Amino acid sequence: MNLSIIVAIDQNFAIGKDNQLPWYLPEDLKYFKRVTTGHTLIMGRKTYDSMGKALPNRRNIVISRQKNLLLKDAEVVHSLDEALSLCSDDKETFIIGGAEVFKQAILLVKSLYITKIDHTFEADTYLQGFNLKEWKEVYREDKKPDEKNHFSYSFIRYEKA
Ligand SMILES: NC(=O)c1ccc[n+]([C@@H]2O[C@H](COP(=O)([O-])OP(=O)(O)OC[C@H]3O[C@@H](n4cnc5c(N)ncnc54)[C@H](OP(=O)(O)O)[C@@H]3O)[C@@H](O)[C@H]2O)c1
Predict the structure, then answer these.
(1) Alpha carbon of 83 to ligand 1 centroid (Å)
(2) Sorting pLDDT into bands at 50, 70 and 90, what band is 82?
(3) Which of 22, 35, 76, 153 is the most exposed place for a label (fewest CB within 10 A)?
């Protein structure tokens, strides 16, 4: 199984505000869909809540400490290890957040799909434990702002150096 993190960050490594994304960047949502469709997603319960539902055409696994949590459209597990053991036969698995789950997963993944947004947003949730100097950039696509996407941003893929 290939295990990757996919995340969008601002210039200060911010990822969230009030359990939502701090920005609206539709091209990044399309990119996320393109990269993850057909694959397995692992997420924290707060990220699931922020989306309000499982993402279609993907296997959705939600991590929670609540022993009685049941979700009608996602599998619930109680640790990252349990999530990973469930998808050991899946070809591609993406850790999709949020900060608490990224922090536990960073030492386990081989690739990072990072959208870097060239702006600073008001935020309350930040990536922790990521040192990008330990990673090698293997792909980059720089994008300019347009009518619908109001910031410049880059789609970057890193692999373990
Ligand atoms: N920019 C991005 O790409 C991106 C991506 C995803 C999310 N986000 C943002 O990030 C924020 C949410 O992140 P967050 O760090 O607050 O929450 P989170 O990581 O999504 O979820 C945290 C919850 O996951 C469960 N959990 C985490 N580790 C666990 C473990 N080892 N064992 C069992 N359960 C575990 C717990 O659920 P219970 O409380 O149910 O026990 C915990 O409260 C939101 O603002 C969201 O919009 C941004």
Answers:
(1) 14
(2) very high
(3) 35
Residues 6+ apart with CB under 8 A from 6: 32, 35, 36, 94, 95, 96, 112, 113, 114
pLDDT of residue 90: 96
Ligand 1 atom closest to residue 18's alpha carbon, by position in its atom list: 45
**φ, ψ of residue 41 in degrees (nearest 5):** -115, 135
Domains contained in the chain, CATH given: 2-160 (3.40.430.10)
Tell me how far the alpha carbon of residue 46 lies from the centroid of ligand 1, in angstroms: 4
Q: What is the mean pLDDT of residues 14-35?
A: 98
pLDDT at 132 over 90: yes
